[in-house]
Design a protein that fits this description.
By secondary structure, the chain is α+β, with helices and mostly antiparallel strands. The chain has 2 domains: 3-67, Ribosomal protein L11/L12, N-terminal domain (Ribosomal protein L11, N-terminal domain), CATH 3.30.1550; 72-157, Orthogonal Bundle (Arc Repressor Mutant, subunit A), CATH 1.10.10. 39% of the residues lie in helices and 18% in strands. It has helices spanning 20-24, 31-42, 72-80, 99-108, 118-132, 141-150; strands at 3-10, 49-57, 62-67, 95-97, 134-136. The strands form 2 sheets. Strands 1-2-3 form a 3-stranded antiparallel sheet. It has a two-stranded parallel sheet with strand order 4-5. Helix 3 (72-80) packs across helix 4, helix 4 crosses helix 5 and helix 5 (118-132) packs antiparallel against helix 6. The radius of gyration is 19 Å and the shape is elongated.
């Protein structure tokens, strides 16, 4: 029967200390090998807490690592370097996201977004900007979604 360990670690900074080390120790696996793999998979989320699930087969000592992703809104706020979204998103804007930053967030969240292409996933990220009071390329997110549909940013999705 496989053992599952779930923990919240800082992106790219997992260590053999708590919470992972003490949980993995009794399973007899190479802890540093698992920590290195986790840090490699979470390096893009530096500075953020990331949910991690380690599934270990105690017989063969093999393991799988599943990385969750922070919410899109958290990734956007992190890109902008702000603490929280706007309390009044329709009137008070807290920042301006570039299309490149939106694409970066879409790549980070790619497994959790519904769109089939990077273009569709980026439109989802831009849509999230509406609810947290963030402009995109100095415009409203809705305008930018229309521009994405019109192909204005197609060179960035290549």
């Amino acid at each position: 029967m496989a053992e599952t360990i779930e923990a919240l670690v800082e992106g790219g900074k997992a260590s053999a200390g708590p919470p992972l080390g003490p949980a993995l120790g009794p399973l007899g696996v190479n802890i540093m090998e698992i920590i290195t793999a986790i840090n490699t998979k979470t390096k893009d989320f530096s500075g953020m807490k990331v949910p991690v699930k380690v599934i270990v087969d105690p017989k063969s000592k093999s393991f799988q690592i599943e990385i969750g992703t922070p919410p899109a809104a958290s990734l956007i706020l992190n890109e902008l370097g702000v603490e929280k979204g706007s309390g009044a998103p329709s009137t008070h804007k807290i920042g301006n996201l570039t299309i490149d930053q939106a694409i970066k967030v879409a790549r980070m969240k790619q497994h959790n977004l519904l769109g089939k292409t990077l273009k569709e996933k980026t439109k989802e990220v831009v849509g999230t900007c509406v609810s947290i009071g963030v402009r995109v390329e100095g415009k409203t997110p809705v305008e930018v979604q229309k521009e994405i549909d019109e192909g204005i940013y197609d060179s960035k999705f290549a």
